[in-house]
Structure formats: structure tokens, C-alpha cells
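Figure caption, in words: inputs first, then the predicted bound structure.
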Amino acid sequence: MEIDRVVGGVRHPWATSDEILEAMNTFEVRQDDIWVITFPKAGTTWMSEVISCLYHGGDFDKADEIVLNQRFMFLDLARPGADPPHILAAKRPSPRFLKTHLPSHQMAKEINTKKPKIVYVGRNAKDNAVSLFHFHQSLKALRSYDSWEDYYNAFIDGDVHGGSWFDMNLYWWNRRNDDNVLFVKYEDMKKDLGSVVTQVSEFFGWPIPDGKLEEIVQHCSFSSMKENPKTNYKVLSTKSVSSNSSFQFMRKGEVGDWKNYFTVSQSEAVDKLYDTKMKGSDLTFEYEL
Ligand code: A3P
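Bound structure (adenosine-3'-5'-diphosphate present):
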């Protein structure tokens, strides 16, 4: 069996089954759902932890009561032996915490009519690509690439999970002024997490208790999330025993790691493609801080 396949022009892992993709046409969205939408490896987990902490008013025991990848239901992933996520999600009490990487044309249709609150996190294409490349090379459920170059070529062709990085980021950037959408950049979280936490709290209308902002920022720092078993998942199946021992979901958490992978000509090609694909848009990303 192949490890992934293309459906509707987008490469999906087998775990994103045809059943899941079809179910998104009729999936019942609730107005009080809380959605985190991202291109894979753009900062989903980070934003989800920020939202958990804010929802619980900075009570970290409550926020981290269960492991993050169960707290936020991942709508794209069927787990062997379990009901598919859309069935499980239908049984969850409100407010539901949901996450997805599905591209706009395969997204749950009802998000456009029910208008739940959606936080979209965008990350610069180069770091995003490097992070997803590592994920592929480490996880059993994802295909391995022969080399970075091999993966890079697929990424710029939009032939990776999530589809085209350019299309997805442009789509959500164009919706950034919708009342129910907050567009956040990973690089802004790195630069000033406190401001982003404040922005997210205002978006949801969840005030931050006095003195808690600094604690939330500290709790959601890379080092703290790396030490936290509820956020640095150990439950993912990795490719080999040796990578199993070294695999860290919290890998580097940096802006600029792309420089260790991209050749000059690959970097220039992404810049050129960006100019073409994002023409007319004022969306920009930072590639170093
Ligand atoms: P790297 O592979 O570059 O380290 P997602 O949650 O969407 O899968 O994204 C994972 C990426 O976000 C990983 O990037 C991970 O290290 C990074 N990340 C997670 N929490 C972070 C934090 N608190 N600070 C900075 N980066 C974080």
C-alpha cells in the first residue's frame, strides 16, 4: 500500500482518508468551536497551547490536563481502530477545540456559514518547509524523501501534505479581516509572544488575569514546551529505533534554520515563486530575526 496519494489535487497521507475528506462536505460546525488552521508545521501546537492557557485563565494544570494532541481534535487524521475524527468530534461537548491542515477547497464547508472563531498561523515558507521535511523523515506514517532536494522540489510544486504553501497562506491572508478570523505569524510569536497572547485573548474575549501574561509567555516558551510531556509528544510512531530515541516534536523552534538546508539558488527560486504567487498581496514574512 502506498503511504500517501493525491486527492483533489492535494497530496494526503493515508490517515487523511477519503472518508474524512468526504465528511468535510457535511461536517457540522458549531458557532462556538475553536479552530486552529495551519499549513503543517507552521506552529499549530504552539498556538494550541496558547489558546488552552488563555481559555483556562492561566491555570496550567487545567490547561495541560490532557496531552495536547488529544485536547485539540485533529480533524485530518484517522487513528487505527478508532472512529474517524468527524464522528468523535460530533460527540464532544462545546466548546470544541479543533485543528486542521486541510486546504480551503477541502475544508469543512460549514465554517463559512457557522463562522466559528479561527486562528490561522502562517510561517515563512523556507522554515516551514524544513520543519515539514524533518517530520517526514522521522514519522512512520509519512513518506520519506531521498534527500532534502527531493523534498524541496515537491514543496515548491505544492506536492506535499497541505498542498501549496502559497495557496493556503494567501487564502487565509485574504480572509484576515473576517470577524471570525485571526491571522498570526509564527515569526511574530518568536519576536514578541506577549503581544500575540494579548491579541489572541482579545480575539476570543478571554481576559488575562492580573499577572498571568508573563506566566503564560513563560509556559509557552520553546524550552518550557520542550520539557512538557503534554506538548512535546512522545506518542508519535517514529521510523527507526535510533530516530525514536532522538525524535523531538519540539525540534528547534527557530526562525532561520532554513539557511542550513537551502542552497542559494533554492532560496532565490522560492523568493521568485513567492513574488509570482503572492503578487498583489501585501503579505510578507520574515526569514531571520
Ligand atoms: P521546528 O521543526 O522548526 O522546530 P506544528 O505544531 O504546526 O506541527 O509545528 C511544529 C513546529 O513549531 C516545530 O518547528 C516546533 O519546534 C515549533 N514550535 C512548537 N512550539 C514552539 C514554541 N513554543 N516556540 C517556538 N517554536 C515552537
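The mean pLDDT is 94.
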